[in-house]
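FAQ: What does a multi-protein file look like?

Like this. Sequence, then C-alpha cells, then the next protein.
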Amino acid sequence: MQNTKKCIFPGTFKIFHNGHINILKRAKSLFDTVYVVVANNDTKQYIDINTRFENVKKVVDELKLDNVIVAKWDAYLVEFAKQHSIYFIVRGIRDTTDFKYEKAIERIYKQQWNQIEVVYLFADKELEDLSATKILSKK
C-alpha cells in the first residue's frame, strides 16, 4: 500500500473511553490506516502495558473498524513512526491546558524527527470533560 496516509494515535490509555473512540473514528476518516499505539509514560501510574494493550485491542475489535492496528510501544514514539514510515501523529485536545501540553510535546517530536507532523483534533463538546482520571475516580 504505497502512497497511503497513515497516522499514529498514541496514548497510555488507562481506560479506552468514548473520547478516545471519537478521536479514533475521526482520524480514520482522515487517514487510510490508523495505528493506535499503547505507550508508557514514566510520569503516570497505570496498569501494565500488556493489559492496557489487550483492553484497547478488545474495544477496537468490537468496533469492527477496518485499517486500525493496535500496537504497543515502550520507546520514543518517533522511532515507531520511522520504523513504519508514518509521518503523522493524531492528538486529541479537550481544553487550553491540553493544548499547551501538546504544543510542548510537538516540539519534542520535531526535535527528534523533523519529518513528523502533529494533527490536532478537538474534542466534541459533549466529550471535552471526559478523562480516564475522572472515570477512575468515580469507581
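And here is the next protein:
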Amino acid sequence: MLIPNFIKDFDIEQEKAKILQAFKERSGKLDYIPLIGDDYSTLTDIYLEQLAQYFETWNYIISQNYIQFSSGEYLDALVALIGITRKEATAPQADITIRANSPTFLPKGTKFHDGAGHFAYLFHNVNIDDTLEANARLEAGWSSKESYETINLEIDNIYIDSIELKNEFVGYEVRESDEDLRARFLLALHRFSTAGSKESYEFYILSIEGIEKVSVRNGGAGVVKIVYKSKFDDQTTKDKINQALIGRIPLTDNLEFVRANEIALDLHIQIEPTSDYNYTLAQNECDANIKTLFSSLDIAYTPHSSAIIDAAFNKYCSKVEIVTPIPQVNADDILILNSLQITKT
C-alpha cells in the first residue's frame, strides 16, 4: 500500500509506552512494571492493536485524496471533481448478414457461437422482412482482440438459412487503467489554457474513445502536427479530433494529421530461472510485465534495454538477457510488440 511520506504509521510500542507512563503517574504506582498476562497490559495491547487497524484504514483513505496515490473507485471519485470519467472496456464487434427462407425476428441478445466455446450476442433487434435478408451487428462475449467465427445460433431457427460474417471482430478496448486515468487527469489541468498548449491538445484528443496514443508538436509556423494511433480509419479519426477541439484551440492553429507508423517488434528474451521448478512462473510473470510495458509506450519513444530488462526481471528469475536488437523509434513512429518469445538461457 502506497501512502505519502508525511502520513505516518501508528506506532504501537510508542503509544503503549505513553499509556504506561500516564498510568504510573495517575495511579501513583511509579515503580509499576507490567507482567506477562497482566490484565492492564492485555487490555492495552488489545486496544492498541485494534486502533492500529483503524489507523491503517484511515491512512489509506486519506492517501486516496492525493492523485499520485489514488486508485480504483477513489481515483474515479477524485477525477470526477473536474468532470472526468474512466473509459470503460468495450467489447469487439463485427457485422453479419443473415439470410432466411421466411420473414422472422431475432431479438437483441440472441446468442451465437463458433462451436469452440466462444460466444457473441446480437447487438440489436433484427426484423427480417420479405427481402429475406438483413444486416446485423454482433457484440463479442470475450475480452480480447481475437476474432472468432461465431455464426451459429445457439438455439436453431428453422427460418434461418445462413449467417455470414462480413468482417472480423474489431474495436476491443480495455478498461482505462489507474495509470492512464491519472495521466489524463494531469493533462486535464491544461485544458483551460487558451494558448493551445501541447498538454491541452493531448487531453482533449485522448478523451476520444478509440484513440489510443497521441503526440502533439510544432509542425512549423502556425501548424500543429498531431501524430496518432487510433482504432478508426484516418478520416473518421480526423473528424472526431476536429469535433473534440471545436472552440478549444486558437483560431490561428492549422492542424496536420499523421497516423503513427507502427514498428512491429518480434522480441526474444532469455531468462535464467532461480530453479527449473520456477521456470513457468518466471516466464508467465515476465510475459505479463513486458506486455504491460509495451502497451504503455508513447509515440516517438524508444525504451532503453535496461527498462525492458527491469520489466522482465522478477523473483522467479536470476538473469535476463535481450536477444533482439531494439529498433530506434523516430518522431512519427510507435513501437508495437508483435510477438514475444521467452526462452531459458
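Q: Is there any per-entry metadata?
A: Some entries carry free-text notes. For the entry above: The radius of gyration is 29 Å.
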